[in-house]
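Re: Re: ligand-bound prediction request (bumping)

Still looking for help on this. To restate: I need the protein modeled with zinc ion bound, output as structure tokens. Inputs repeated here so nobody has to scroll up.
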Amino acid sequence: MKKHSMLTGLIALALGLASCSADRTGTADYRVVPLPNQIALAEGARGFALDPRTEIGYTAGNAAMERNAELLTDYLADATGYRLTVTDTPAEANAIVLTASLDDANAEAYRIEVGADGIRIDGASEAGVFYGIQTLRKAMPVEPRARVVFPAATIYDFPRFAYRGAHFDVSRHFFSVREVKRFIDMLALHNINRFHWHLTDDQGWRIEIKAYPELTTVGATRPETVIGHNSGKYDGTPHGGFYTQDEVRDIVAYAAERHITVIPEIDLPGHMQAALAAYPELGCTGGPYEVWKIWGISDHVLCAGNDKVLKFIDDVLAEVVELFPSEYIHVGGDECPKVRWKSCPKCQARIRALGLKSDAKHSAEERLQSYIISYAERLLNAKGRRIIGWDEILEGGLAPNATVHSWRGIEGGVEAARQGHDVIMSPTSFFYFDYYQTKDTQNEPEAIGGYVPVEKVYSFDPNLPELLTADQARHIIGVQANLWTEYIPTFAQVEYMELPRMAALAEVQWMQPEQKDFADFKRRLPRLVALYDRAGYNYARHIFDVEARLVPDTERRVLTATLTTIDDAPIRYTLDGSEPDDSSALYEEPLSIDASCTLRAAAFRPSGRSRVFGERILFNKASMKPIELLQPINPQYSFEGKGTLVDGLSGNGNYKTGRWIAFVGNDLEAVVDLGEATEIRSAGINTCVEKGDWVFDTRGLSVAVSDDGKRFREVASEAYPAMQQSDPNGVHTHTLAFEPVTARYVKVTALSEHAMPSWHGGHGRPGYLFVDEITIE
Ligand code: ACM
Ligand code: ZN
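Reply:
Sorry for the wait, this slipped through. Here it is.
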């Protein structure tokens, strides 16, 4: 018989009673995040009252269950102020008993029975019990309470996906063992069971490899780091760090206690510049190389023609396999430029020796990459392991047993599933948590770009009935979010980027799709956020801000502003640009805005005022008028569609916010109906440019007018030269002035870049034209 922690429990009890309001009883609420599959409350039956004498029981001799029990006492201590006794011989009454006897097809299923005598958590495995523990923990009252009543109920729950992943890049910035454990704690809270640990990249090698000591003595430290988005300025401060093999084992064990498998990623054959800095003979040119100081995709990759590289892969993976019990080892495979291979005699000799040929599907160099990935796969398969690779591994033909990690959209995953390969879905537009989570990017810590709000994460549905047969869809084994840390130097910022998006991820990963409901999720989220507060997590608070939906109403010629908050907190607003305070107008119904103004609004709660929402709304003669487009919008960037161009709202320097719509291969050709003959003298547009992303300025603007909407006559036009490499990114404004003319219909045409210039990587291909607000005066 084992009993422990009674003594400390009693001491903590005394302290707990002194420090929290012991006289008040709290009631548990099982509607947590992720929402359990079935919650059957036993109406009228007496629930279970937790008190300091409650024991936590586990099956004798089951070490994993004993650890579950200890973790449960930790969680309960946090919620009650006292520590319960863990025992393998619990009393008949007043106990929470953990067993793993549930007979269920889903290995992570659990059942919780709550009655007057106690709580039983029965799992299909110890992991299943752990998720029952998480549900119990999250069901506890928000304020710590000494007495908690758990309503009588039966809960039955199981996850949708067996692979529920979260990725963390510790190469671009290094994070300590303590911080990595804090990351793992976050995963446990969200029922996530795979930690994809991105350990190596161009900017730093972070895992000790005994056979190659210089990987960490040299490759773990870069001399300095570029400031911002490759600004050309540097911080002058060395950045480094790595995990010893003992530390790796410690982290793997810490995760395993929380039923989380650590999947290491050794990214190859690209993203290897830090390794090349340590061992330059592994590169095509022989170096010298430095641990990279800037962000991007380095051309310096492993030489695929050098047998020393094969031995390197062999040796590194052999040590990795010893450290990580995970069935899966991630071998990267993403973003491997082929420029060095094309001119490397060794790589070309390998291509000839292997008889690799370019054809319509793949180049010889892409096939050489497949050769390397397949080589790594053979090594790992021989050790009883399987590989995961990013979706680029499709490009030279898939390694035979590889699992594909689809990140550039879902297409790679769909293709791999069709070929009978397992797939993990991490499309950037839903699951790249390094992207901005708000459109208000000016008030955010600098991020890589993009826009992935909580709602977008939540909306992902990997059910692909129109793309995959049922058999193929079974290959979609899971969903994962990724956190790349180029612009995330501190762990506080890691927390900010992860939370609460991880809560939305958890429901995508765990819940059956027909039970998902974003409105309901938002009602349950504040209780999870209270746990974030207790843990001291630096979560993003956007979800508590005023959410504004601004929609042009072309019938009434107004912009309709609908303001909401997650918890229906009172909202106050101003239209004159002043700060809303508690004497400002109370929002009661959607606002109809019919003239230029600055709308500002905030939620007012007992805890204080939220951040202020602000939007400048500018009316011109085109605003809120009917508009037609004569050429199609690019479907990837259509957002709210054509109304975006006349909604009085201007996009900022981020083209992905929804304020911009894009044309590619086609041009903007818009006809605005002013409603009646109107005198006008100028017309213009804004464009948003991001040349590195193939987003170019317009090549020509023209304005034509018509009285009947059919026959137009041009009143002004201007052509613009192709962009130079040195031309600025960001917002560009183009306005054409002309002799005053009276007309009802105005056609504005802006030509897109139909062939990008020769200095650009995409030369000859069409560029994207992002346009916003049409201005007619
Ligand atoms: C990736 O984001 N390069 C997989
Ligand atoms: Zn080479």
